[in-house]
């Protein structure tokens, strides 16, 4: 019977070390996110110097003479970094010097606002079909399965830009002919509205652009970027609220977060507050008409940073909704990339951090059209937000360069800071009181994630041996690596037991991480044995560690 119980337990546990020796921590913070003790806690010098060097570098991936830009980094509390560059060559119609209150267009970063405004409407279910809110699509077979969630997650298969990316009207026939396009004219009824210098499309014309085309991919199948998808979401928000998307964004996002009134879909009355690149006037105040919901928003670096703090502090959505929103919806072809709703998710695993090599999750949104672009990133592990804005022809190389520089500079600093603070607060030995028995817990900081359990005994016996005896034997574990990770509430931490096998894990399991499968399996007499509660004193220092399942209340020595 005892044997049977052990076997049953063992079968329920997967080996979760990889043969590459990778750690398998939970995603998100592996230590409490660091707290900057004062406004000067982040040394802005190195990143400022690097950006100044970039601006003066003739080999930079953009031309600083004609591109203005802003970069901000924020914690949950406030910005810890801002850098603004004003291009010497720009339009006199706009601002003369760029700062945190300068108005930029943010192109497709608008999609974050449209998606959030949808998530915030109580009466609107994200799993509704689009045709329930956009009646023109009702009864059309190809739209029957498409939900609002699919549209917001790049999974609807809806066409990208439709007639708006039509090449024929954009270049003279000679040029097109020299590029190998056959001599064919646009069909008579083909809409050319909603473009620079053309009339506004009626909603009917706009919808005709989508209903005449096949889907790019089948609904729910694989991510494909679509501006049309977000216009439809804008229509859905308007139908559900009876308000314009402009008003919904103002009332449900901009005002509650205390962003300035210039942020939103309305075209600024005073262009002198906008940064306008040389030859960029037409794009600075162009009315996006139907395309507003996908790329029409104006905002400032200060406001955009405030917006990210609003998300990270879950001021509009609840904490659980925010956590669920900052998750992937689909994979891309890259093992280090995914798409979300509507996030583009980067998971670089090549960043140097004292806590080891493992993926860093960055939830991003990229935007760009001629002469303007933006890039925002949220890094849940360290609770940091980054904003990039530019005005000029710099395009993606500019925004990518700036986001990369911000991440490369800030993450190692915050990783170190989290480790220093966790070390001061928790690292050390915890023992029972004078007559308390033979239990102990020793927490250390090593070159892996979380806090390493260097030693752990219960009633004189090693906990790792108990774990191996109960869970490790039948699956070939010869050792176990034990770490603790903060839950994010009440000083409660979760133990990760990571079995170490006696041989390489073969084939398709070489890089798999099954840590998530095994939490909360180590229980004893009604209480979890893989949870550690800390008692913190008035100075913020842990004085006791409690393990409910093992009935351990251990005092820090
Ligand atoms: C940058 O733009 C300026 C102004 O158009 C131009 O004179 C200069 O040659 C450009 N620099 C480079 C490296 O392309
Ligand atoms: C293209 O076709 C039109 C008529 O279909 C003709 O008038 C025109 O000359 C052609 N252009 C070229 C460059 O062949
Ligand atoms: C601690 O363990 C030792 C050795 O196993 C044993 O002799 C001793 O009685 C134990 N002390 C308590 C308080 O359990
Ligand atoms: C540990 O302390 C908690 C309260 O802090 C108490 O509820 C619990 O009974 C204690 N456990 C043991 C084994 O002393």
TrEMBL record:
<comment type="similarity">
    <text>Belongs to the beta-lactamase family.</text>
</comment>
<dbReference type="Pfam" id="PF00144">
    <property type="entry name" value="Beta-lactamase"/>
</dbReference>
<feature type="domain" description="Beta-lactamase-related">
    <location>
        <begin position="98"/>
        <end position="394"/>
    </location>
</feature>
<dbReference type="InterPro" id="IPR058664">
    <property type="entry name" value="ARB_00930-like_C"/>
</dbReference>
<dbReference type="InterPro" id="IPR051478">
    <property type="entry name" value="Beta-lactamase-like_AB/R"/>
</dbReference>
<feature type="signal peptide">
    <location>
        <begin position="1"/>
        <end position="19"/>
    </location>
</feature>
<dbReference type="Pfam" id="PF26335">
    <property type="entry name" value="ARB_00930_C"/>
</dbReference>
<keyword id="KW-0732">Signal</keyword>
<dbReference type="InterPro" id="IPR001466">
    <property type="entry name" value="Beta-lactam-related"/>
</dbReference>
<feature type="domain" description="Beta-lactamase-like ARB-00930-like C-terminal">
    <location>
        <begin position="418"/>
        <end position="557"/>
    </location>
</feature>
<protein>
    <recommendedName>
        <fullName>Beta-lactamase-related domain-containing protein</fullName>
    </recommendedName>
</protein>
<dbReference type="InterPro" id="IPR012338">
    <property type="entry name" value="Beta-lactam/transpept-like"/>
</dbReference>
